Amino acid sequence: MTVLRVTAGIAGVALMAVGVSLLMDVRDLPGVLVWLGGAVVLHDLLIVPVVLLVGLVLVRGGVRGPVRGALLVAGALTTVALPVLLRPGKTANSSVLPLDYPRNWLIAMVAVATATALWSALRRFGRGRRRPER
Q: Residue 67 and residue 71: Cα distance in Å, rounded?
């Protein structure tokens, strides 16, 4: 276990060094630092409390694994898609963002919800069956 922690620590320090070296090449360093600071504040003051509250409500409501996993996947997909979902209007160059990203994000959300519903139904109805004894 200690070797794994040391390896993870070394990898983390190496990745931070890469990040710092990339920051040195940025032309608008104060702007980037304000953006990074805003991301930290947004994460700590909005995203974390909302996620913890939703998790608490779900656990108190008896919802377990599949739904919580689906929320995690939906949150990750939304986080990745946010830049193109929030981009206003059309771009000057139609080849920059050629796809219908809001539609594709919605299709991904429906796929996650459908897979979760099927998985939950299989788990619920599978509990009533007994496995054959050997």
A: 6
